[in-house]
Structure formats: structure tokens, C-alpha cells
Amino acid sequence: MNEPDFTLATSKIAIVGMGLMGGSLALGLRGKCAALYGIGPRRATLELALSQQIVDYADTDPAKILPEVDMVILSAPIPAILTFLDQLPTFTPNPCIVIDMGSTKKLIVESMSRLPERFDPIGGHPICGKEKLSLANAERTLYYAAPFILTPLERTSARAISAANQIIDAIGAKAKVLDAVEHDRILAATSHLPFLISSALALATPQDVAPFVGPGFKSTSRLAGTSSSMMLGVLQSNRENVLNALHGMQSQLAEIESTLSSEDFGKLEIILNQAQSKYQTFIQ
What we know:
- By secondary structure, the protein is an alpha/beta fold.
- Helix content is about 50%, strand content about 15%.
- It has helices at about 20-30, 45-50, 80-90, 105-110, 160-170, 180-205, 215-220, 230-235, 240-260, 265-284; strands spanning about 10-15, 35-40, 55-60, 70-75, 95-100, 120-125, 145-150, 175.
- The protein has an eight-stranded mixed β-sheet, with helices on both faces.
- The chain is elongated and about 70 Å long.
- The two termini are about 40 Å apart.
């Protein structure tokens, strides 16, 4: 794309999906770009975004907004992102940069690669969030100091990379670059498996113990509160990696179960000490 360098301060940006992540992104970008546009299927959410001055303009119809913008940021569940990418060429005839914030990357990057040449795509994924996903829970500081992974395509221009880095700098995140396939392998272990473990814990816990749960249970099961409407698409699009991560977890649980069953508490102590030591490497 033979266009001048991207400058955030003079650019018009559309955010597709005005939930927790999209709303927090808009709050972080307020006053740092020429105009912010919100797009989403729920008119009430868009009206809230307008009334709280989170965006300058909003509409449920992408075709009314996208011809005006320099960059489109896709902040929606994985299936919605994939559908939107298929429809994007019909929404605007104009060149623009396209970045997504989906939790898996391989399928999205493959879909981006099929966009017409007038689009300049780059994959992205901020490693942050909360289990409460609505616009009402959006926070301006949600992205502060969080890793923001970029997964460029072969066709991604230096201009798009610069634009993505300007967005990341503006919201206080930290850019990291990964291959899309490697991203999905890593996130299966660090994000998608923890969600399933939290869900399994919530399901396995008897209802009658609810009055007695403490902070340990609450912190361990917190991710089970995440909407299945978001996570189902993540698990579907990263199925093989998630299955591999689950098999590893099942192996560890089986070993712990075996030591308890055989009353081999010496071995159990070794396992727990190893877990404690490994945990410390993750939080340094």
C-alpha cells in the first residue's frame, strides 16, 4: 500500500465490538486519535458508548461507518471476527488497516490473508481481561503493562506494524511478536486450559459448600464466570492445542491421585515442591 506513514493522532479508528475489551480500548484511545467509531449488534450498548462519550460515532451497520475510517479493530468473539472478515470487503471500498484482538490467531490470520489487496491486515491479541465482559465493566487502564501479541502476515506492511505499535503504546501495553501457530500453542496452556480447569472445579464442587468457599476457591474458579459465548469459539478454533494441554493436565492429576491413593506422601511432597518452584518462575 503506497500510503503515507500512519499517525494515530490524525487517524479515524473503528472498533467492532463494544464489550469489555473494545470499550476499554476506546477509553484508552480517547483524545489520542482524530475520531473513534463504535460498531456492534446491540443498539443499547452503542447508545451507552455514545452517552458516556466513549466513542464519537456509533452504528449497528458497518457500511455506514467503515468507509470513513483509516483502521478497523476487531474486538469480538472468534466466530464473529471470522464472519466479519468475510464480509469486510462489502462494507468499504476504501483501503484501511485491519487488526483483530482475538484469543486465537491461526484461523483469523488465514482469513485475513484472503482479504483484497486494499486491506492491510495484522493479527493481534492483548493478554489481559476480566471474566465480566460487558461495556459496563470497561476500564481505561485494562491494558496497562499487559503483553499485546502481534502476529503479522507475510503481506503485512511496515505501516500496519507501525500503526499497531502506536495503538499499543497509546494504551500502555507491551508489544510482542509471535507466529500465529506458536501463539495458539502457548495460549492453549496459559489461557484456554485455565478456563477449563476453573470450569471443572466449579462443576465438581458440591453446591452445599457454597457458604464456606474462601479466597482460594474464588481465585481458582474465577475464570468459570467467563461467558461461554466467548470461550466456545476460542476452544473450537484452538481445539487440537487445547486437547494437548488437557492431556498434560490429566497426566499430572493422575500422578497426584496415584501418590495419594498409595499413601506415598514422600513422592507427593516432591511433586508439590516442584510445582511451587515452577510457579515461582511464572510470576517473576
